[in-house]
Write a structure and sequence with these properties.
- By secondary structure, the chain is mainly α.
- It has a domain of about 210 residues.
- It contains 19 helices and 2 strands.
- A two-stranded antiparallel sheet has the order 1-2.
- The two termini are about 40 Å apart.
Length: about 475
């Protein structure tokens, strides 16, 4: 079935490139999303099965694939208003690359081999770079080449990690490098090789997870890409980066380096929150501000995994709710950019007066992403702090709390300025556009899920997260 899915995605992408008619391209995009939903349903009904020997429909893949399908559907719809001129042929490359990106992420979520994940992650770099260059501006070109260069460097580093993991398995009789096979012999492997492998994998895939130290590529990409693309990069690709690291982490959890991996993750997480807080205090661009917020949230995820215990559950809950919230914010900032004609904070203001419906969505999204009740992210962040207290990691706890105060101040003051204040630049003039109220429906629906999660997490979500984290040592 997954072979049929990939072949269908490839043929539809080729048809998009060949057809120069805007409406036909849109219908092809709708057709692909229908196939995406059907495949998602097939995976859900065949949980635990392996397809073609290289793809396993496990709990983690099912969870993140469901999120990807929901958010990419909204991203496709939100992307249509940016391509309305049938004479502008860029829509062909945009839709074809979007199809390729969604298909690549889907495959990487379900891959059960370390090397296959690596190949599909590289495929996301190529397709995402086309989407980043959609606007064809000088800044977009610079960000695209930077994205290709840094992501390729990250992929090379991840490959070095795979090589060291493979070397450590020499003499074990294992053929191939599946996550299951690595986990079965992890306790007998050379700790030195495993430490080197994990460092390289963490550094390499942090380009996708937007985690310190390779976070800069995601910041630049999100600032120039169309908002629906930014939403997909900050959710689907970020989750892919996390899952690529987490699968290695879980496979090596029975090895002698388990405690050391936790310390590395906590360090990377704290540094990510620190860098995010510092840059958010001087952010002058709305989409960059959201990208720094992603860095901060991924830092919290890394800390949660590193601290263990209830932190494991909190990390996955945060990832799920972050995906809904951050995609909503990117969609709304995109609409704000169309209304105000700018993404620069100093040139923006009075959004509540100009587009009240969108302003309300932006305000709720801000409260949600900052973890202010009734946001479901409050629950996940509370559980992370609880895990830090249980582990008696007082220094990390105090530092994280202080940094979160800076993040809350930085984002809230900027969003409130966008909503209520006059532009700081008195010479700013609006090229005011229009946005249909229907375009905010997906944002309110996603944010409703986030608010609801503050009071109730459905049993199926709890069950699937518990399946994912089953077998991890309890610190």
């Amino acid at each position: 079935m997954i072979a049929i899915y990939f072949i269908s995605a490839f043929l539809i992408a080729m048809a998009m490139l060949a057809v120069r008619h805007l409406q036909v391209n849109r219908w092809l995009m709708v057709l692909f999303m229908l196939i995406q939903w059907l495949f998602n349903g097939y995976v859900l009904m065949h949980q635990g099965e392996t397809d073609m020997g290289y793809f396993t429909y496990d709990a983690a893949g099912i969870l993140f694939l469901g999120l990807l399908t929901l958010i990419s559907t909204a991203a496709v719809i939100q992307g249509f208003p940016y391509f309305t001129d049938p004479l502008n042929k860029r829509f062909r490359y945009y839709h074809a690359a979007l199809t390729g990106l969604i298909a690549s992420i889907t495959g990487a979520y379900l891959a059960n081999e370390v090397t296959l994940v690596w190949i599909l992650v590289e495929a996301t770099t190529l397709t995402a770079s086309v989407l980043i260059y959609s606007e064809r501006t000088v800044h977009a070109l610079e960000a695209t080449w930077k994205y290709i260069f840094i992501c390729s460097t990250g992929i090379a580093l991840a490959y070095m990690g795979i090589l060291f993991a493979s070397l450590s398995m020499k003499g074990t009789g294992m053929h191939g490098l599946s996550f299951e096979g690595l986990a079965s012999v992890a306790s007998t492997l050379d700790p030195v090789y495993l430490k080197i492998a994990f460092i390289f994998v963490l550094t390499g895939y942090s380009t996708k997870m937007e985690l310190f130290p390779m976070h800069t590529v995601g910041i630049d990409a999100n600032s120039v890409a169309l908002p629906p693309v930014g939403a997909l990069i900050s959710t689907g690709l970020v989750n892919l980066g996390f899952l690529s690291i987490f699968r290695i982490y879980k496979a090596l959890s029975s090895s002698p380096i388990f405690g050391w991996m936790n310390k590395v993750l906590i360090l990377a997480g704290v540094l990510s929150v620190l860098v995010a807080a510092g840059y958010m205090l001087k952010a002058k661009h709305t989409k960059r501000m959201l990208a720094y917020s992603t860095l901060e949230n991924m830092g919290l995820v890394a800390i949660a995994i590193g601290i263990g215990g209830i932190g494991y559950y909190a990390a996955f809950l945060l990832l799920v709710l972050h995906a809904f919230t951050k995609s909503s914010l990117f969609f709304q900032v995109g609409q704000m950019g169309r209304v105000l004609g700018t993404y620069k904070l100093d040139d923006s203001g009075l959004y509540l007066k100009l587009f009240p419906t969108g302003a309300i969505a932006l305000l709720i999204g801000m409260l949600a992403i900052l973890g202010i009740p009734p946001s479901g992210l409050f629950v996940s962040e509370f559980l992370i702090l609880k895990a830090l207290i249980a582990a008696k990691s007082w220094y990390v706890l105090v530092l994280v709390l202080i940094l979160l105060c800076f993040v809350i101040y930085a984002m809230s003051t900027r969003v409130l300025h966008l909503l209520f204040s006059l532009p700081r630049d008195n010479a700013a003039t609006y090229t005011q556009g229009t946005v249909g109220r229907w375009e905010t429906i997906s944002q309110f629906l996603f944010l409703l899920v986030v608010v609801g999660a503050c009071f109730y997490q459905p049993p199926f979500l709890e069950d699937i997260i518990n399946q994912i984290i089953a077998g991890l040592p309890n610190l």
